Amino acid sequence: MNRLLALQKIIETGSFTQAAAALGYTQSSISQAIVSLEQEFQVQLLNRSRSGVSLTPAGAKLYPAFQRLLQTYNDTQVLANRINGLETGTVRIGATNSLSRYWLPDLIKGFETEHPHVHFTLYQGDFDEIRTDIRTGKVDYGFLKPSYTSGLTTKFLKNEQYVAIVERAHPLATKQTITLSELKAGSQNIILIPEGSHQEVLAAFAGAGVDPEIKDQIQDDYTVMAMVAAGLGVSVISKLMVDSDAFPIQPIALDPPIIHPIELAYRPHATLSLASQHFLQYMLAQRQQLR
């Protein structure tokens, strides 16, 4: 291919000297490449004169075919680079505790069975932090609620449901469903995460005409569950966080339910790596299997 590239550059510049300079070769090596090409095809390709270089009649007939060969080679290189990018790329994701713990492991495991050399970097945070990470390019994409996606490109993934949690010895623990009014009446302390993760929860309390009179605000879901388990209050958190026996707490379905959509968000026109593009499509294809 180097010989064809040398020929192309000579035709473009009209000079062996300029072609050599453009390609970073010596003039001697450029001349040898053309001689070798002419010997292989047993035809003179170029006319050399004081006025410059031009194609011979035979060269003019062959040159379009040489150009097609070069284009095919370049296209093949692009494809190979894309394949290598998919096989060895890195996917950077921003997610909350609940989503990174319960959705991402199965998604990553399934994707890695097909692409074992793709690497993942996970940045955990609240929705404000994830939005900032997307906008600054720290992550390729992140999981956000619609109220945080202004100015970003989004694709709907799945709805996330919230439940009330109480300690297992709490009088409310036997209830199958509970209203926010009942939850407030049954506890002296409602513990919530202070940031935007509970924006919909606070809106639901307001919609029900209930002042939660929040005493404790905790940044971390696990600390919230630990405090509830210790009998320090009740809370409302993502159902995903309580699908285990890590804490002695009792989840109770809310009536009416609090549900909000989770979207995959990324910057408009962002240039995602091939690995990130494929994992994005994989997540969307697998969303019905998410718990």
Automatic annotation (TrEMBL):
Keywords assigned by UniProt, alphabetized: DNA-binding, Transcription, Transcription regulation
Keyword GTP-binding: no
Keyword Transcription: yes
Domain (HTH lysR-type) ranges: 1-56
InterPro entries in alphabetical order: HTH-type_LysR_regulators, LysR_HTH_N, LysR_subst-bd, WH-like_DNA-bd_sf, WH_DNA-bd_sf
GO terms, molecular function: DNA binding; DNA-binding transcription factor activity
Cross-referenced PROSITE patterns: HTH_LYSR (PS50931)
GO cellular component: cytosol
Family: Belongs to the LysR transcriptional regulatory family.
Protein name (Swiss-Prot/TrEMBL): HTH lysR-type domain-containing protein
Taxonomic path: Bacteria, Bacillati, Bacillota, Bacilli, Lactobacillales
